[in-house]
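Running log. JK asked me to keep both predictions on one page so they can be read side by side. First protein, sequence followed by its tokens:
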Amino acid sequence: MTNVEMSKQLQDQINRLQQMRMQLQMLMQQRQQVELRLKETEEALTEVEKLGNEAPIYKSVGALLIKTKGKTEIKKQLKEDKESLELRKTTLEKQEGRTKEKLTELQSKVQNSLEGSPEEKN
């Protein structure tokens, strides 16, 4: 392999490394957003539990507050939202883990290439 080919291969690896770092950053941001929404949902569920059965409950729909049909309906909706968010969080954590592994592997390959390790010379 010539130096030109090797440097093109190395440049491709470096580009993939940068893309993977951006992807990891995006996944981490998405996970943080989901965690925040999950915390807000759990807090809302806790507050709904404290209310009496006849207490009026409103939910935000865009720029409006809409009166709900009651405590039972809103609890059901909040629990469904919580389950959905927990599933999304788990999925993002798995994607984040896989991306970190791939990133570490690629960083190692790039580092070996830069150091001119025996693996790359063969």
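And the second, directly underneath as requested:
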Amino acid sequence: MKLILRRNQIEQKGLFFGSKIIYSLSIYVELTNEEAELAEKYKINNEILSSIKLTDGTIYDVTIGTLSRGVKFDSEDIACLLQYEQDIKNACAIFKIHINTRKNYCGDETIEY
């Protein structure tokens, strides 16, 4: 899997109040053929990996399906975008764990304490 992050900033000039910077974060994932096949096989494209509370109070559910189509966030608050970015990185790590666990979920395990 490749996680592609595109960051940008745009200065918006106002007529009365000066200018402000709008930060933009576009994110999408590219799955390998094997990952895409396994995600389809196990029906996990729409499994929620993380939920992000956006600055407007809405909740954005992160799935591999939404990340494969791409998502974009804009904000004046760069700290929010950095948090979204970290949440999505964590969601991708969770996806990788889920896909590998499902693929290799066979056999016996002995745990000694």
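Observation for JK regarding the second prediction: The longest helix spans residues 78-103.
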